[in-house]
UniProtKB/TrEMBL annotation:
InterPro entries: PASTA_dom. Gene3D superfamilies: 3.30.10.20. Keywords: Membrane, Transmembrane, Transmembrane helix. The keyword Membrane applies. This is PASTA domain-containing protein.
Length: 249
């Protein structure tokens, strides 16, 4: 009688270590990338954050990028809806201007429609000025800013200089009249666009003439950069007859 052969236990496959499984490989990649990111943050240089408040977002982004800060995020002010982000005005920034931080730090810029609205108003004013230049808001603002006393003084001095050696001009500013506003012509390009015409009685005392020449004085004044100036190209006096001169009040 034969003895049966001993049965061997079934063979089992050895288990793969976790680093050979797909999820293990993915986990290792994630850990390596995380370590690289942390190392990059720790080794990144530190710089001072430029002041970009008051700039448009597009300008601010370029300034920060040139300074080495590439992580810039816009956030609208008080829930404003801003479609033209690059044209919006930066009204606040975090970190604050001048703070020394890593260049990898995220820079948050609070933006507002303020700059966009300024441009829209400027475009509206330009359109309005073209349609009705003498009644535009710009014309009214230019006129309102004119200092009449400074204008009178400037006109008086300029008219006297124009007389030169021929004589002198005596102006009775108490009789002054002024037009509402005018668009100045033939003026220096740097002068204001709108001005006042001041008119008053004047006596031109001319050498060699016994009686003074009666005149109506005309002088243009304008405003620019907060100062009142005289437009010499529109400044003159015109001789007149005595009835017209006497009627001038």
């Amino acid at each position: 009688m034969s003895t049966p052969a001993p049965q061997l236990p079934p063979r089992t496959k050895p288990k793969k270590p976790f680093y050979k499984k797909w999820w293990g490989i993915l986990l290792i990649i994630i850990v390596i990338l995380t370590l690289i990111g942390v190392a990059a943050m720790l080794l990144a240089p530190s710089k001072k954050v430029p002041d970009v408040v008051g700039k448009t977002y597009g300008e601010a982004q370029k300034i920060l990028d040139d300074a080495g800060f590439s992580s810039v995020t816009p956030q609208p002010k008080d829930g404003e809806i801003i479609l033209a982000v690059s044209s919006a005005e930066v009204v606040a920034q975090d970190p604050q201007p001048g703070a020394t931080v890593k260049v990898t730090t995220q820079i948050k810029l609070t933006i507002s429609r303020a700059n966009i609205e300024k441009k829209e108003k400027a475009a509206e004013a330009e359109k309005e000025a073209k349609a009705d230049p003498l009644n535009s808001n710009k014309a009214k603002a230019d006129i309102a800013a004119i200092n009449i006393e400074q204008g009178q003084q400037g006109c008086h001095e300029l008219l006297e200089r124009k007389q030169g050696d021929a004589g002198r001009l005596e102006i009775d500013w108490a009789t002054m009249k002024k037009t509402p506003w005018v668009q100045l012509e033939n003026k220096d390009p740097e002068q204001g666009d709108y001005g006042l015409i001041l008119e008053a009685k004047g006596k031109a005392i001319v050498q060699g003439i016994k009686e003074p020449t009666l005149a109506i004085v005309k002088c243009s004044v304008y405003e620019m950069d907060g100062e009142t100036y005289v437009d010499g190209t529109n400044t003159n006096f015109t001789t007149t007859d005595k009835p017209t001169w006497d009627a001038w009040k």
